[in-house]
């Protein structure tokens, strides 16, 4: 007997069904408990419910849609056996495996299986992205020459992809030829979702964080395909050079905005990577941009997924730098208006208004700020997971604990990723109109990132002393004649918004 397939809201693409069974029936569940337990961004709740309901509309009579308090109640109400592809979080995976009448299938939607990754990772003391990325490129024969060498003779074009924003440009399109991102058209389903969320807030006591607004991301496979085609044809060529650049008035730059449909399971990452590869072979995009994008899709994204499952459950509680400060209220509630520092205010406002900022504000503004102030990495992981529209447990745990907060002691990254204001000044236009000066570390004009950088190094000197990549930075502490004053200043700042 063919069992009904239960699809979670991040398993909505065609590859989560069996192509040889066109009449396969499906269960989709809207569980209130998910949103009661945690205060999610309003836009994220909208995306998830919109994606579920759009999938139900596509499937028609093949789908049963149940809106219940819990998943368990939905299964009891359905009253028949189901099968489900392995969920994407440890908690959900444990839950489905202890349910009667539920058959758990292997996970789907990835370039490399967990078993293949475990075989690659087991003999290694460090799980470095570059090693994994080269391996997966060879496995999939993506951007490879017939002789087994990488296209262009290099694995990594990062050196070509670190341009600062064009001088004097308010938006990237002011200086280079790049189209606006692809935007979806909202429909009646989106309106119905808003009515549901309004009712939950009004009548059910469910609270959200952030602001609502027009849907920015694809929630169906057709929309996702359109977003991929538009990006590859009109934006990919400018993605590489400016992927690390920031502009206050251009949150999207040349980024793809494909993380949401990828993480909803609407797209298969290998298909997306091959679309970009075709653009290179057809002469529609240069190799540096294509390699940089493919590195994100089948490199970093896949790598993070596998690190999540390869590490034991204790990884979540790793805190090698002994950071225990709670998130201050202004940060947790996305109160961007309380922040004077222009770069941080802009990043928090982006999360508040869109539930999204690109990877450099995430790492070098939000993450760097939290690292410098010693925010608890587990609490910060939860914040990123709840507040970002593409945030899931598997996404944020390695990205925050490993990459952003260095709380795993260097398993993923060879050094902490943080900087003073000089980096922000070079890679953005934030500093020119800011109340703070990136070159000043003490006094009223002191940049909180510059001061915070030296404060972080001082607090963690003993823990970082054995790291060869930090030797030069730590020696710099000895040349600071105002270190004591700086530390008093940072202590006085406490949890106040900068």
Q: How would you describe this protein?
A:
The chain has 498 residues and is mainly alpha-helical. It has three domains: 4-105, Rossmann fold (3-Layer(aba) Sandwich); 114-181 and 216-310, Serine Threonine Protein Phosphatase 5, Tetratricopeptide repeat (Alpha Horseshoe); 315-493, DNA Cyclobutane Dipyrimidine Photolyase, subunit A, domain 3. 47% of the residues lie in helices and 5% in strands. It has 22 helices and five strands. The chain has helices at 32-37, 42-59, 71-78, 90-97, 114-121, 129-140, 188-204, 221-234, 236-239, 259-263, 269-281, 287-310, 329-332, 342-354, 359-373, 377-387, 393-404, 421-427, 448-459, 461-464, 471-477, 483-493, and strands at 4-7, 26-31, 63-68, 82-85, 102-105. The mean pLDDT is 94.
Summarize the structure.
This protein is mainly α and 498 residues long. The chain has 22 helices and five strands. It has three domains: 102 residues, Rossmann fold; 163 residues, Serine Threonine Protein Phosphatase 5, Tetratricopeptide repeat (Alpha Horseshoe); 179 residues, DNA Cyclobutane Dipyrimidine Photolyase, subunit A, domain 3 (Orthogonal Bundle), CATH 1.10.579.
